[in-house]
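REQUEST FORM: STRUCTURE PREDICTION
Request ID: SP-0412
Submitted by: Lab K.M.
Chain count: 1
Length (residues): 395
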Amino acid sequence: MKLSHRITHLTGGGSDGWDVFYRSRQMISDGIDVTELTIGEHDIRTAPSILATMDAAARGGHTGYASVPGIPSLRDQVAARVQERTGVLTTRDNVVITPGGQAALFAAHAAVCDAGDTALYFDPYYATYPGTIRGVGATARAVQARAENAFQPKAADVDAAAEDAVSLLINTPNNPTGVVYSQDTLKEIAEVCRRRDLWLISDEVYDTQVWEGEHISPRALPAMADRTLVVGSMSKSHAMTGSRCGWIVGPQEAVEHLINLSTHTTYGVPGYIQDAAEYALKQGCDLEQEIAAPFRTRRAVAQQILARQNLLGLVPAQGAMYLMLDVRATGMTGEEFANALLDAHRIAVMPGESFGQAATGHIRVALTVDDTKFAAAMEKLCDFAAQCAAMRRTA
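STATUS: Completed
RESULT:
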């Protein structure tokens, strides 16, 4: 029997660049000690108080079908959080709760793209972006954010790619680069979206992890609230990756249709998880800062270690739980370097090529192991890079 073109072409074919990750997981399964600096998974777990709230809600009976748009009190809490941080009037009518940020990304594209439409996204990109776009039947078109511009995307490149496009997906703070888009960058992108009549889908799941500059939601820019869908999630801000609770914030008309989509796809998020998410959001910035603090500390540790060498280049590490390092001076691609590092020192990092072509010759390092282990891994990584460069010079 034949499967649909849509499902069989989600990944676009060819290598997805994640071979290093799969190798490291196999090594761990085989009992080999690997320092895993690959995916964005907290090394701490969900706070006990959040889990206690979830448990009490489940034992109290909130285990049946929950309101498909999201329970009203959680939608109110998300709306209040967004309004407080952006200054944009936001009510529950602007919010739909989704099973995590990934479901929100899919739903947002389903809301604005018809089959055959072109949807733009920036390269480097989070691994699921092009597949998510293909999954709704649209054509995924990458717009490069270049290393020479510190991976700040250029509005002129968006404009050049936007002739027949209907949407643009952005992510700031950015995974994989760690870059926070500047106010000028966002204003220029917003201007292109208005002129080209593009929907802007803004993935803001790292909004609590900003180390330099400030997070600006493009929904808050002039004349953008009616053409912006914001994706949010409890995963990164509250270490609730497995709970699968996220949201979309957007114009009321779009949200009404997104609720209809939820009715026909996910049928909502379990009530006890929503209760726990509401409790977590009510703890405010203190809990969010507590969750983010280890990544801020490890970023500073990495900066100190990297400052003692001049071989590896650090892309401005302004936000998120990652560092992007330029390894081209070793004479290796990101994929070659990552594989060799895993073989030599049992340290697993992600090749830049895992996230598109713009980050070729780079690696992404996740700040997701304890401070001592992380510092040791960074020291070994830098020493290994120096050895690789020395071997290249003598070859």
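NOTES: Residues 64-283 form a domain with the Aspartate Aminotransferase; domain 2 fold (CATH 3.40.640.10).
Reviewed by: T.R.
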